[in-house]
Amino acid sequence: MKTIQIYDTTLRDGSQAEGVSFTVADKIKIARRLDEAGVHYVEGGWPGSNPKDRDFFAAMVKAPLKHARLSAFSSTRRKGIKACDDPNYAALIAAKTPVVCIFGKSWDLHVTEVLRTTLEDNLEIIRDSVSFLKKKKREVIYDAEHFFDGYKHNAEYALSAIKTARDAGADIIVLCDTNGGSLPEEIAGIIAEVREVLDCPLGIHTHNDMDLAVANSLAAVDAGCIQVQGTFNGFGERCGNADLSTIVGILSSKMGYLTLPEKKLKDLKSVAYAISEVANLPIPDYHPFVGHSAFAHKAGVHIDAILKNSKAYEHLDPETFGNHRRFITSELAGKMPILQKAREFSVEMDKKSDTASQLLKALQEKELAGYQYEGADASFELFMKKHLKKYQPFFKLEGFRVHTERAADGRAWAEASVRIDVQGNRRFSAADSVGPVEALDRALRDALTGFYPSLKDMRLTDYKVRVLDTRDATAAKVRVLIESQDDQDTWTTVGVHENIIEASWEALVDSIEYKLLKGKKK
Fold first, then answer.
1. What is 5-279's CATH number, 3.20.20.70, 3.30.230.10, 3.40.50.2300, 3.50.50.60?
2. How many Å is the Cα radius of gyration of the chain?
3. CA distance 443 to 437
4. Around 474, how many Cα atoms within 13 Å sit in the side-chain half-sphere?
5. Would you say residue 331 has pLDDT above 90?
6. 213-226: per-residue pLDDT in tens?
7. What are the domain boundaries of the chain?
8. Distance between CA atoms of 292 and 248, rounded to whole angstroms?
9. Among 428, 425, 432, residue whose Cα is nearest residue 451
10. In the structure, what pLDDT confidence band is assigned to residue 332 with cuts at 50, 70 and 90?
């Protein structure tokens, strides 16, 4: 079985995503997680561009990766000076990585309009850069920037650029769709033409500006590329990069390639969520392979069929990638999710049992009151366990208070205090914040963390409020949905009340209790 090299650039290309800013500690944490997952290459950053990346590489020298090869990134040397005199190359060598990845110009437009030099000078820049790094005993990965645009504009020159890198000793030539504007058939066709005239290993680096980065990467592998560059969860500038969590899933399960070690595939979801947690960019529920809803089923007909044979509505086993099957409760599903969830709690019942009928009636009453468990799976599990007498509360609320204040200059803040009882141990805690819900969250977790340290690992990632009956205006019931996440999973809870703070409290308590329940399951 052929191996496709997985080259992760989350720490460099991924850090260019809007809203992402990794600390040195963040970068080390992600690098270690990728190494444990079995990724072949981890690109750590550009040591010549900023002190943070320089410090990261210095830290990695003291504690090297165990499996992956660490790569430092840079451009070809500056025009007008030799590689041996370029400060960027001094920093690149000082990083002491076994691998360096440099990008160079393939598109004549970039050579003349951006680099502002001649086509021949650009070839000399490529030649000098690669040969200098090979003399320093580095594995050299050459990223041919804007290759496909360059090839479509001037194929002869684009080919001469990568031939120059190959002849100078580059170990692999990576063809880049830097603007993300190519179609899969263009990618495959151009690579086929390149392979006719260039006998060396090829890789692919695509961007997602047309939502085709994954498709283009797969087309490139099918055309003969042996390395795929990308980021976990597709983080990156503009519309992002090729998503390695999806690419690994498809290459491994559908195309017969080895990517991550087989025993590590089950960690795919946890790796994706761990990186999402550090980057503070939540994974969409509908994300293939690793998303919360990737193997979720709502229609009663689907659920009934899957219980008989999972292949009826699933083309893959979710556990292969560390995910799990979920049955969503709604008016479309009837008793099926209730029966399935009960089985998870070792409670057997059939559709005609009194218990099933009572549970369905209780569920319908909750939905009539405004609860929506279709989008709040964690609250549904707690609802089921409570009705089946399979749940013991982790704490008791004795009371809470929320106070909001606005100063004359427009500044506003909230203060919250809670009193709880944990198995006879009473605790009072108070906190403040810009908003009442966050103040409540801080106060409650501060009160509980001493008893349950695992709460430090979770955070609230989304908060939604919906007015259920607008005819009642400000006296209407509201439904609050809170999404929470840790480094393994994401979950949603719901609360309903005429008082928005009370509805928020209900969803907040469910979120924390579900996190504690997850830990208890382990």
1. 3.20.20.70
2. 27
3. 10
4. 0
5. no
6. 999 999 999 999 99
7. 5-279, 296-361, 369-390+458-522, 395-451
8. 18
9. 425
10. very low
